[in-house]
Amino acid sequence: MSPELRRVPLNVLDLAHRAHGGSNADAVRGSIHLAQQAERLGYGRFWVAEHHGMPAIASSAPAVLIAAIASETERIRVGSGGVMLPNHPPLVVAEQFGTLRALYGDRIDLGIGRAPGTDPVTAAALRRGDPVHGADNFPNELVDLIGFFHGMGEENPMRAITAIPGLGDAPQMWLLGSSGFSAQLAAALGLPFAFAHHFAGENTEAALELYRSRFEPSRWLDEPHTMIAVNVVSDPDPEEVRRQTLPGLLSFIRMRQGQKPQPVSIEEALAHEYTPLEEEFIRARAARQAMGTPDEVRSRLASLLHSTDADELMISSAAATLEARVRSLEIVAELFELAAV
């Protein structure tokens, strides 16, 4: 028997999915439409993720997409889930998000991640092959980024630089992660922590416990604050759930095999002859996500919130069509009794 569904703030993570046969223009317009629907349904945040060189994902420029989404919505918070800091000089990120903050006020979130979100060659191109910077230097670059928004320490050689916009235009900042490293860093800096359960579901509880146990109060938070992202595909018809889920799962399998797959059609995913290993991967991948009928989704989300004690929930839907992603958001909103506006 699953626990009762605990009501928490609900948010959305989007990757500007490019559907089979669709264009990049369709993908980014779809992201804007999804954000408008999320706002209508009463969701609190809409974040876009940074990925590069992936044919099925068009969210390579989060700051640009955030500006477009914020201009087409009114109340929902808009942000990055996240900006991959190893790909960008901290000063550039501060200026971009300082500008967003100046344009849209206190609606902007800046979620920061440590992974490059791409392959090593593309990552080198993004930073022009700079060997000094990258994931290994992430803690120092994160401190610099915070300094550009809030003021540098006297010992920081960057203190002579002023980010304009940036200084005094700080968005709400989150640290993203899928490991204990990010959990400990978020705790040490007193930042809110968002865990990528949607692709690293085995480590969720352990990482959140590590974050909570090592949390140090800061100017931002007196006590730890957590969010988990979970993949949701839902429909009253189980066969429709399967149709909408399989293309994303097949694409994920191919990425795990080192490919950069083109968008997979529903027909291709249904016709694919899955090996026993692929079938086992699909079962394991779906085990702690929320893909199913509304009752199944309710049960899985209730269990997940019970085991993680997360303060907020972020819905990421890898459904094959935009209509199905909107439907999944509608179903979750109904389950949590969100107030549509």
Task: Characterize the structure shown.
Helix 6 (180-189) runs parallel beside helix 7 (204-214). The protein has one domain (10-237, 290-335): TIM Barrel. It has helices spanning 24-41, 62-71, 90-104, 120-126, 138-150, 180-189, 204-214, 238-256, 266-271, 276-287, 294-308, 322-335; strands spanning 10-14, 45-48, 77-84, 108-113, 172-177, 193-195, 226-234, 290-292, 312-316. The protein has an 8-stranded parallel barrel with strand order 1-2-3-4-5-6-7-9, surrounded by 8 helices. The radius of gyration is 19 Å and the shape is globular. With 341 residues, the protein is α/β, with parallel strands linked by helices.
Q: Could you give a quick summary of the protein structure above?
A:
The protein is α/β, with parallel strands linked by helices and 341 residues long. The chain is built from twelve helices and nine strands. It has helices at residues 24-41, 62-71, 90-104, 120-126, 138-150, 180-189, 204-214, 238-256, 266-271, 276-287, 294-308, 322-335; strands at residues 10-14, 45-48, 77-84, 108-113, 172-177, 193-195, 226-234, 290-292, 312-316.
How do the helices and strands follow one another from N- to C-terminus? EHEHEHEHHEHEHEHHHEHEH
Question: How many independent structural domains?
Answer: 1
Q: Which CATH architecture is right?
A: Alpha-Beta Barrel
Low-confidence stretches: none
State the CATH class: Alpha Beta
In percent terms, what proportion of residues is strand? 5-15%
Counted by DSSP, the helix tally is: 12
Briefly note the CATH topology name.
TIM Barrel
Helix fraction bin = 40-55%
pLDDT averaged residue by residue: 93
Terminal CA distance reads: 34 Å
Largest sheet composition:
8 strands, parallel, barrel
What structural class results from the helix and strand content? alpha/beta
Approximate shape: globular
CATH homology superfamily name = Luciferase-like domain
Spatial arrangement of strands, main beta sheet: 1-2-3-4-5-6-7-9
Radius of gyration: 19 Å
Number of strands: 9
